[in-house]
């Protein structure tokens, strides 16, 4: 009998990291930045962004697929992370530009002068020139990087604590997270929220201090950063959901009361998972938005979080690689269909233009996946290997009610 | 009232006179707007004559009728031809005294410079210039009176002062006009442009006012004019105190006008000034504002801004240093200040204004607001009246807000009740509920395209919307939701999939632009109690609709067999099935009913909001909130939730009126906190029915 290690218990980690590394290498070699030019810089950015979406999808899978909390708020954490890094990017870049122009004057500028000039440059668009209090840390990169973790983390912690302690569960909790997301996006839409209202933050693709580095190289760097973050996130979450911790949170998903009666403090487990995934979402957002170049409150609207759930559901809940694959496939297909590159289908009497019909197709295929293939794309791997994640239990020892009995993990008996 | 018929004959055109004497120029038609006004004035004369006759001894009236307009004018010919502001009164008095039916028209056209004098015989005519000659019209009959060469005609051009006198003389004719609309129009024009000379004709016209409504309006207006333009302070104070009973915008405007202030600053308060209040810098106005006021009054030197300071330094660069400080070292505020002071000490540039200077300047001046009205008794009375009025306005505003909140609550109730029923019975949250609302609204739109009569189309649209969304709901239940019982989260997502598909489908069919759903004319307009309280009829209709559905749903649930079965399934599906109820059938019917009500809500919402493919999404979150706050599976819970959210949203909007986004944010935060207190909503199911 071989010794049980983390890797032998979670063989998907090895395969995932391997394929991620190989994929990253191939892209790097073929990319514009390394001189081959077979993949354009914008496509490298798209792929880099997709890796960030995969990371947030994995986080979503842990909170939903493993813990049973259908959070419709993780894209809000994602957006907040983007806003935090965006504040520094915008401040620092404006500072460089303005310092250069002010240095041209006969008298050198004072720090206060530069600060005020940056304020009127950034906030002139929303009719203000004063720095709001939340921009206090914007000049400092380390402080904003800390905020990338802290802001989504604290928000998730406070919200989760309020929600879980009042034992809001199931559909109620989903609606409550959706309300939180809506409140946040509505707040950010206001001009006096201090984050430039519906204009959002822009010009984020220009990294301060790296003005001489071409975008083709920057895109590779961000692609690698995203890949490393995704790999690290995968390992982290694989570790969280394996072992005793993983058993408890899956227990919470399948029957919360029973786990509570067994003596576990369910709320703490849920809060830990909710906050951890919130933080990882924030980090993913901080990597995503410099590649996207612009962030505005639309990105935080509840619909984004619902799409996140859709990706995870299509990819297959309850397995990390499923969520990652779902996010990649659906978001790439989405940009392919809506970008106008998908060929129109001529039905003779009506021509289906995919820019108009893609959402209909997505919606219906989503219903179909939910109804017919609840395991999603990830379920295909079971067919190949003929494996079952959890061996079937004896069917005689059914619990006291319908909802308690499980023969397949995560699936209730009909 | 005597019959107006015989009097009307006075103004009847006597065609033969002009027709056979002079040739009528063909192209003498005056501009269109003038013709309308003329017609209006003509319509007014017989009735005016009637009113005048009624209030005068008939013998005198008969005697006056003998004189004609031309002869009256001829007695004052010089004054008519070149009127002066002070002296024109005698002509007007004579015209008013004559009570001739043509007098108002003459006054009107006189002031509009359409009256001419023929120099050959000194007679007056109406006329227009046509090339080298004038087409003349007789004053009394309105008939063409031939033409005259330009050399024989003098145009009469009353100046602005005279025209004002004439206009206010006209007002008294209008105020006694027999046509109500004209009197109201005259009152409106006075209300828009109040002036002192309108007070007397207005007071004079009150006594004979037949309509109690207009009489009240006249008295109110006279009170307002008296408050501003009364002769003695006592008169004004009495009028001001009388105003404190009202709430109208005009009354508030009048009082605020009396209380208008000007901001002043000086070393001391001048004697005899009617002070509204004294302002302390730092408390009532910021230090910066106070100092800026001193600067604008030339009482203090301007504070140099950073840019001015920098410009002054730049202008005094002297070979690499400024005021002894090397340029390179000028990158801190302190260094710049030092350099500036050196320069100022040398007298090159004005001294820097320091904080101490500002403090000293502020301390040596008083800031105050003074009333434009000098009499403190009047301003005190006006202040007291305004306070009283504003208290009353606040009370009325609360009432108005309550009406708004009730109407909003009805909308949320209609939008959410279907959701609440399905959630209560089946434990299923239908994310496509908003799209059923949209579907109902588009059904109404399509019906309106087919049936042009808005009333009929509305009557057809309501049941049709119910039928369409009922069918869609049943289809969805049969095809999708049935397979997902016991998996509520997956239902939520599956219905979301349907929601995005339906939304995009609507976009593909109806386009992205908003489609109007026009309400019938009897639903337009508003129920207005006074200037503060008012509500659109359409919102009243929605309120009634919500009441009807509340009653209907309560009836179905409490008094019918199906309702009994629905309640049984809500409480315990397994037990209900054991008692011979078919839960599948009940689920299907419930889902259809919930969706059908959403369709009805869609028509109602579409009547006052735009119909777009995204309209459902705008209501879905509020509907969820209503259900969550109200509690599941209970009609009264939904009603309570809708009321709470409606009242809350309006209340927050009232406190922060400029910002509906902030209002929504705070409302959602409140709901999240509310859930802490009552996690199962206001009306929670108790006992076994509550489940887990």
UniProtKB/TrEMBL annotation, chain A:
Regions crossing the membrane: 12-31, 43-64, 71-91, 145-164, 171-189, 220-241, 268-289, 295-313, 320-337, 357-377
Cited InterPro entries: ABC_transp_permease, ABC_transptr_urea_perm_UrtC, LivM-like
Topological category with respect to the lipid bilayer: Multi-pass membrane protein
Biased composition range(s): Basic and acidic residues: 403-414
Top-level taxon of origin: Bacteria
Location of this chain's protein in the cell: Cell membrane
Major location (coarse): membrane
GO molecular-function terms, A-Z: branched-chain amino acid transmembrane transporter activity
Annotated keywords: Cell membrane, Membrane, Transmembrane, Transmembrane helix
Chain segments carrying region Disordered: 392-414
CDD domains hit by this protein: TM_PBP1_LivM_like
Any one Gene Ontology cellular component term annotated for this protein: plasma membrane
Protein name: Urea ABC transporter permease subunit UrtC
